[in-house]
Give the backbone structure.
Amino acid sequence: MYLRENSKIFLPPEKEAIFFSDDERYLKGVNWFFHEFFQEANDELKWGKSTPAYSCYSNISSARLKAHNRDIKIIYLLRDPVDRAISQYRMNKKRGVENNEINQLFQQLFMSDSMISAQNSPTETNSYLVWGEYHRVVNDYSWVENGNFLMMNDNFLSENTIDAVKVISEFLGVDFVASDVMSERFHVGGVRKFNVLDDIKKFKTLKSIWRGVIPFRYRRRVMYWMDQWNTKVDDKMPVLDEEMINKLKIHYNKEYSLIDELEYNGGYLIK
């Protein structure tokens, strides 16, 4: 959102214009991808997109990105991995795809066979722990050219937004542009206002009508903003017991070391 105010950068209206991690879309080819998401861009602009899925499915996405553009620049935001796992759990609870109690679920996911399965074949509901294994993501993108991989602490971006955007702008080779949106928070988590909207999506007939009437690119945008509108803030956090928190912190030892390195360097690091 912060970079969208810069006239030298083009970002698709949707936050997650997923392509390289989606088998069905990827088979349509990069020309389809450019037409659907970058039709309004021109060659004078820096093209970019915000897609967390490329870290969630990093082994697939990195290989495909490498095949198409070895000169790509990547910005990787790291947040506290325990907070990230809880946030994913809350999101799935909000969407109605998760009903298990958090401590029992995480304990199950710590079992070796569950962990290996999630690392090799992650899904929305088995990946709470493995999607926070940032060191694996960094290793998967080790092919990125020197100076083209920016890692940034999520706290640095949220607490020192102007300084962070200045760093990102310089990294991308564009002038810094300040805007009022730098004081706002985006994509704040919460719960559904009306669950009926999610229930409607489950009806195949209505889904077919929806897809037949509204073109793909507009359908994505409408669904994105409907999701934002249908979310309200919920202060009730799922509670992790102390034993589970300690277990998670041990599991994420490499991740916390990486975050400490970013803190030592002022909140970010370019590799």
The chain has a mean pLDDT of 85. The chain has 15 helices and seven strands.
